[in-house]
Amino acid sequence: xxxxxxxxxxxxxxxxxxxxxxxxxxxxxxxxxxxxxxxxxxxxxxxxxxxxxxxxxxxxxxxxxxxxxxxxxxxxxxxxxxxxxxxxxxxxxxxxxxxxxxxxxxxxxxxxxxxxxxxxxxxxxxxxxxxxxxxxxxxx
Length: 140
Hints:
By secondary structure, the chain is mainly α. It has two domains: 1-78, Multidrug-efflux Transporter Regulator, Chain: A, Domain 2 (Orthogonal Bundle); 83-140, no CATH class. It contains seven helices and two strands. It has helices at residues 3-10, 14-23, 42-55, 60-73, 81-113, 119-123, 132-136, and strands at 30-31, 37-38. A hairpin with a 5-residue loop joins strand 1 (30-31) and strand 2. The chain is elongated, with a radius of gyration of 23 Å.
């Protein structure tokens, strides 16, 4: 398959296809006599896997590791050893982000309930629900 057909079938643009190839997420394709990249059909599946993994929050480096492990275990009938560990780590990360977002939500609701309308004015009030000092210091 030529690059345009692969990109269209996977729902990505040509720049994304080339970028993933450059990052090593996709093997270097064969070239036609005219110099066009010719990809095997399974490239579409690989691209879909990459995009799905990104939607789950995996970085391209993590996806590269998963693809590498998967290629080494392909056809052995067992799951890639790295997926469970990376999924566990990602779940911990997601849970922490959810906790942070819930804290932010609670602070915003409290600011709205308190009638805060001016951040500068609110920051000077002792019972301001927005913890300006911890936020400025990088703590929540």
